[in-house]
Structures are given as C-alpha cells and as structure tokens.
Amino acid sequence: MRYSFLSLLANGLTGQKGWTPAWRDAAPKPAYDVIIVGGGGHGLATAYYLAKVHGITNVAVIEKSYIGSGNAGRNTTIIRSNYLLPGNEPFYEWSMKLWEGLEQELNYNAMVSQRGILNLFHSDAQRDAYARRGNAMRLAGVDSELLDRRRVRAMYPFLDFDNARFPIQGGLLQRRAGTARHDAVVWGYARGADTRGVDIVQNCEVTGFLREGDAIVGVETTRGTIRAGKVALAVAGNSSRVAALAGLRLPIESHVLQAFVSEGLKPVIDGVITFGAGHFYISQSDKGGLVFGGDIDGYNSYAQRGNLPVVEDVAEGGMALMPRIGRLRLLRMWGGIMDMSMDGSPIIDRTPLPGLYLNAGWCYGGFKATPASGWCFAHLIATGAPHETAGAFRLDRFRTGHLIDEKGVGAQPNLH
C-alpha cells in the first residue's frame, strides 16, 4: 500500500485495521540471478537499486538474523559529505543528493533532517586544515562555510569557548548535512525492494559457498543450498569472517564502536557538533536524547558490546566541549562492529573469485554512505564495471599503493 495522509486518516478512523506488512518474510528459492548476503542498509539498498535502476528482480537478500539487527540499528544517524580527497568527495556527495530525495522516492518517512554539521577547530593549524578541506569541498561543488569564533558562539553559545586547554576558535560548517533515522532507512529500502519482487530471507546464515572451479555459483546456508549467477557480500563487521568461507583474506580488521544516548531534554542542539581536540560528536534526537560517540574500543572483536575506558574517554570529550552535560544521566549504550580498512576508505569491487562481489571496509562512514553504496554496488553487479563515483574503491589498491587515506595516519585500521 502507498502511505499518505489519506491512508493515515482512513486507518485512524477504522481502528488501524487496514495496514499491510511492509515486506514479505520470504522463503528461499533454489536459485536466483543475484544473492546479496547481508540484510542491512547497504544490502537492501543494493537490492532496491538492482530492481529499480537495472530491472534485475530475481534477487534474494539473505540475513542471518532479522532485518536491521546489525550496524544499521547501531549507529549515530549522521549523514554528511564533508570529505577532502577526490576518491571520497564525489561518492559521499552523490550519497547526500540521494538522501535529499530518499523519502519521496521510497514513500517512507526516514526522518531525514538536514540540520547541519559543525566541525570545531581549536588551533591555527587545525583552522588551516579545515580551510583546505572546505576549499576542496567547494571546488567539488559541495557546500561549506568556515566560521570564526563569533559566528560559532552565535550558533551554540553554551559551548565552552574559553576552555584553557581547548579554546574554540571556529568551525567548518556543512548546512546540508544532518541526521536520518537508521531503522527507518532499513525498513524503507526493505519495503521498496520487496515491492519490486526482491525476496528478503531472514534467519538464514551463510555457512559456505558453492564453487565450480574458482567461480562462486551459490551459497550454503542454515536453510539449505541456494544457487546464484552472482553473489554479493555486504556484511559490514563480519566481512572478514564471511569472506574467509570463500578462502579470501581481506585488508580489514573488525573493531567495536560504542554509541550512547542520554535521558530526554528539551531542544538544545539543533545540529551535529564534533569536537576538534578529541574524537567526540553529538546531536539530539527527536525524542530529546543527546546521541554521542567517539573512538573505537581499539581491540579486535565481533561482540556488539564495548568496555568502560572508552565510555570514560567519550564522557571526558563531552565535558571538555559542553560542561553542562555533566549532570545528565546516561540512558543506554550499544556497540556496532566496524569493518576497519587499512586506509579508512571502503571497498566496492569484484573479488579475485569470479561471481563474488564485495562491499566492505566502511569504518565510520557506513550509514551516511547507504544510498550511494547501494546505487554503486548495484551498478557494479549489473554491469560488471564500477560506477564513476566509486572507481577509486578498488580492492587491489592496498597492493598497488593507491590508498585513499582521508586522515593521513598511515597503513593501519584507520579512524577517518
């Protein structure tokens, strides 16, 4: 059914009895043209664009648990395209443009709110770095504004501008950035893909791959064998484990990233703010809770839970930026599994095994990239060639040295 004011009114007057399921809980068929492993935002977006843009509808999205049970429901909802390097900037700006029309396209309220993101700087050197990034953004046609201390104070007068260690000198603002409701994005893409004939198969874990020579021709699952012309992996923090079932070793490490939400408050932060002297970012949800996060926990793990030292570190960053939050109570916290690539940028490419495609290595950038990731991955699967905005996200760049090191800290599980 199509959602509208009239359908909402009609169901309200009839006891809410006219709603239909948003998508089918399909049983797997023996074979498909394309199998997408991973029922998160990237996998579902890929299925949606395969059907909508390329007309490929004999597709299955298989998920080991329920839809949205992984990182799609465990992030801090930020969307932005304020990147510096040519390999990243066109891709994330394409994603930003897709975000701007997503709700109308999917006929689903994803709660996209372009409230802006402000990256604070605290030194002359950091100001120069942000000026460089802002100039690169504007040359690429992306909005950016470099604000001085006075203009930042006018936006957020409650920040600690005179902190002895970290005085706020200004910030880089992207007004088109903002937030979106992570669960709603997943549900919207699931509904859109299902409407176009895609099978969404839940509680179906991949346990192995079917091979004919070197080629991948299907998957073994807990619900039986499923054959496919092409198999695509979009499993985020579990990329290394699933790829290992096919004999691949990826340039990826999995780490835990924690996020937090406070008790509800009246509106106080109308945008997204990042602390320039430490890794801390904060926004306010529509329910009133302050949503914030910081660094990964720093050790390899597949567990969706974190540890207390990072809680302390994030709290310290928040207190240095906004001392007034010290009286707030922490309502809850959660952890997602980050697939950290060695240069901090993603991989959208074919693997050395014919028939197997890879979407991985998103680090901190996964949620904001959801629409463009799905669009570009679908383009690669359908045509065999990379999309023009994702041409730099090659798997072999770690061998050839063509890295996309946005943060510039070398060959390690990057934190960009």
From TrEMBL:
<protein>
    <recommendedName>
        <fullName>Sarcosine oxidase subunit beta</fullName>
        <ecNumber>1.5.3.24</ecNumber>
    </recommendedName>
</protein>
<dbReference type="InterPro" id="IPR036188">
    <property type="entry name" value="FAD/NAD-bd_sf"/>
</dbReference>
<dbReference type="InterPro" id="IPR006278">
    <property type="entry name" value="SoxB"/>
</dbReference>
<comment type="similarity">
    <text>Belongs to the SoxB family.</text>
</comment>
<dbReference type="Pfam" id="PF01266">
    <property type="entry name" value="DAO"/>
</dbReference>
<dbReference type="InterPro" id="IPR001763">
    <property type="entry name" value="Rhodanese-like_dom"/>
</dbReference>
<keyword id="KW-0963">Cytoplasm</keyword>
<keyword id="KW-0274">FAD</keyword>
<dbReference type="InterPro" id="IPR006076">
    <property type="entry name" value="FAD-dep_OxRdtase"/>
</dbReference>
<keyword id="KW-0560">Oxidoreductase</keyword>
<feature type="domain" description="Rhodanese">
    <location>
        <begin position="34"/>
        <end position="78"/>
    </location>
</feature>
<keyword id="KW-0288">FMN</keyword>
<keyword id="KW-0285">Flavoprotein</keyword>
<keyword id="KW-0547">Nucleotide-binding</keyword>
